[in-house]
Amino acid sequence: VQLQASGGGLVQPGGSLRLSCAVSGFTRDYLGIGWLRQAPGKQREGVACISTTGEKTFYADSVAGRFTIVRDDNAKNTVFLQMNNLQPTDTAIYYCATGVCSRPYWRATYIDHWGQGTLVTVSS
Asked: 124, 14 in Cβ contact below 8 A?
């Protein structure tokens, strides 16, 4: 499984960014796609994920109501993370990943496959 992430960058507080993740390879070997992030000096944490069917999503409490994860209707192995009202605390490297999309399992320990990270910096 290969994951290609894109969309990071620099944004001011209150701004928006959209990340994308395209999965290729053995695409039946995962149950969900999403992102984890790692801020400087902190552990990697789950951010959001969406199930293969698109019926189930998970959001970390810190991003719920601000971030939205959706699947591309035309390319179902591609997902987008729309990040609104970004805050400096959202600054981190965001990693696209596959695994079981549920609150207990969307964490680094249980991830099956990782993509490369993309840096999101929120600063004025």
From this structure: no
Amino acid at 79: V
Query: Are the C-beta atoms of 113 and 3 separated by less than 8 Å?
Result: yes
Q: Kindly state the average pLDDT of the residues 69-96.
A: 93
**Amino acid 64: pLDDT:** 97
| pLDDT for res 27 | 65
Q: What residues have CB less than 8 Å from 12, skipping those under 6 apart?
A: 122, 123, 124
| b/e per residue 66-83 (b: at least 16 CB within 10 A) | ebbbebeeeeebbbbbeb
Asked whether the beta carbons of 108 and 34 are under 8 A apart, the reply is no
